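User: Could you go from structure to sequence for me? I need the amino acid at each position, not a summary. Structure tokens:
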């Protein structure tokens, strides 16, 4: 079974790219994801992974292009990441626009995770940010679910500390 897995990883550029991402070899991963896209340009996950690599290497224009390509293939799939890039680059209007899209999607992350994301540091005190968070984006169930996940992570962390 091991040779089959190794062979599959070696022959599939998407899996090679994922492996290189894990090793933080982002430039090499970009090449593999580019090969994967040339084989099949209909999978948003390939664009998302390549965009994340572009982001990690500071190539924001290329990252934006790939996140937008993913958005065309799967609505809202790149919105959060687009928001982060625009926030980091000081484009508050665009950051808020894409964050609002993200918050209306089924992909939305918990509020605490978004608000603690360092990418939003530059805009977190802006009137646009405050206006965005004046709306209720989460229902009671989503808030409860986020709290449960947080408590579980805290419990696991504290048990690991006791060992």
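Assistant: Here is the amino acid at each position, in order:
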């Amino acid at each position: 079974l091991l040779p089959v897995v190794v062979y599959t990883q070696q022959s599939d550029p998407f899996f090679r790219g994922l492996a290189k991402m894990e090793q933080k070899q982002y430039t090499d991963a970009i090449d593999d994801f580019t090969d994967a896209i040339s084989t099949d340009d209909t999978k948003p996950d390939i664009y998302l992974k390549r965009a994340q690599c572009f982001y990690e290497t500071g190539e924001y224009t290329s990252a934006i292009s790939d996140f937008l390509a993913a958005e065309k293939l799967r609505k809202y799939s790149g919105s959060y990441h687009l928001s982060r890039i625009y926030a980091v680059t000081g484009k508050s209007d665009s950051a808020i626009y894409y964050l609002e899209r993200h918050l209306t999607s089924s992909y939305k992350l918990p509020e605490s995770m978004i608000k603690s994301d360092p990418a939003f540091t530059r805009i977190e005190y802006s009137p646009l940010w405050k206006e965005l968070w004046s709306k209720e984006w989460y229902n009671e169930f989503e808030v409860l679910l986020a709290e449960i996940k947080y408590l579980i992570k805290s419990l696991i962390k504290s048990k690991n500390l006791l060992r």
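One structural detail worth keeping in mind: The chain has ten helices and no strands.
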